[in-house]
Amino acid sequence: MTTFALPSYDEATSRYEPVIGLETHVELGTNTKMFCGCPTEFGAEPNTQVCPVCLALPGALPVANRAAIEATIRIGLALNCSIAEWCRFARKNYFYPDMPKNFQTSQYDEPLCVDGYVDVEVDGETVRIGIERVHLEEDTGKTLHVGGATGRIHGATESLVDYNRAGIPLVEIVTKPVPGIGAKAPEVAKAYVAELRDILRSLNVSDVRMEQGSLRCDVNTSLNLPGAEWGTRTETKNVNSLRSVERAVRSEIIRQAGLLDAGGSILQETRHFQEDTGDTRPGRSKETATDYRYFPEPDLVPMAPDPAWVAELKAALPELPRVKRARLREEWGVSELDMQSIVNAGAVELIEQTIAAGASAAGARKWWLGELARRANESGQELSMVGATPAQVAELQGLVDAGKINDKLARSVLEGVLAGEGDPAAVMAARGLEVVSDTGALTAAVDDAIAANPDIAAKIRDGKVAAAGALVGAVMKATRGQADAKTVRDLILERLS
Description:
By secondary structure, the protein is α+β, with helices and mostly antiparallel strands. The protein folds into 3 domains: 9-309, no CATH class; 319-431, no CATH class; 439-496, Orthogonal Bundle (Arc Repressor Mutant, subunit A), CATH 1.10.10. 39% of the residues lie in helices and 18% in strands. It contains 17 helices and 14 strands. It has helices at residues 9-15, 66-78, 185-203, 242-261, 307-315, 321-332, 336-344, 348-356, 361-369, 371-379, 390-401, 407-418, 424-431, 439-452, 454-461, 468-478, 485-496; strands at residues 17-27, 82-83, 90-93, 103-106, 113-122, 125-138, 142-146, 158-162, 169-175, 215-224, 234-239, 269-273, 280-285, 295-296. A 9-stranded mixed beta sheet has the order 2-5-6-9-1-10-11-12-13. Strands 4-3-14 form a 3-stranded antiparallel beta sheet, with no helix packed on it. A two-stranded antiparallel sheet has the order 7-8. A hairpin with a 2-residue loop joins strand 5 (113-122) and strand 6. The protein is elongated, with a radius of gyration of 29 Å.
């Protein structure tokens, strides 16, 4: 293997111009598969959701799923695409053990949706991502390599195939190449996938769970010298989180720059992102369209969506995320910069749901952008996966608003919630974290603090009220932070007035 020095990211982007493109696969949330009546429930026992059609047994004929076609049209409309008046399916021929037919029923030169765009915000700048095509196909099965250390075929002793996923409706959304974004390329890629995920969720066409594979992203990256033709691209396959999309682009830019600096050339190939190391490893050489020997699917009739039906679907589209964020920004009373921070953290829906559960906008933002965001960053998780629900966050803030706990105690309560000890009120009771409200007990603690600090008490009696902070701190320490600081301060000034 050829070794070469890797530049820093800033060095790489100062010498080369990156061009990115993204191919996103979305498993639709239909009840049945694309061309048969098998159920699509995730997590079923292997090979229990199969039939002669999705197993490609001789003589079995497919029938297209109308709900999947409708969902694809709605996706295309939400992405500002033109909807084809006539299109058809094609056979994409290649051999994988988890594809029973040895071809995939997909679309090639006549896709259902074409020529759209999505606008994303990165560092206060709007970047328009062109959409080349949105087409409908079927998913493959799933291969599990066992007996090795990595879960990949190299080193495995055997491979097992589960065909439950084979035939599930799959929408592929392909962007046009995105040049001219320079060092922002990783952030633009992440922002695009985040915006796309939000759009798909708003349409209710998929659960878009990247960790379960219902939203998977292939990231194409190339480099060229300023003013030169675009370079050879690599395709990093099946990246499964927003953070990993950003890391994969950054890693490929650094790797390709190092290889080009050393006089090497980029091989057009698929690569695999390594979550543990943050780099990419080679997969296989990348095929071209001719290698797949596309030809029209003879067992399915062409599709000709009625323009009146398409118009009805367009009129019924829900409020899309970009419009919704503008509305929420006004309702929440936050600046554009603050709203962008909320978007970047993946917290829009979490905050919205927390407010719906009874919290104020400020209270919801405080927890999701503060303690919970910190924990998510430390663990490398998406914010939605950190372990607290919007209802629990609203309950936590409600305890603070009611004066039962202060912010310091609330963080201890949150720790218990994240540890699985129950909802906030239950954690507060079990850990004995409620604010001390017994005036007698607080007065005794205040008297002890005054007696232990006569010099500070004398300053307060002389009118130096600011010195009360030291006595407040002593009382808070004595009560393990369970006293209300304002009440303690009032008692101190009352006793020393």
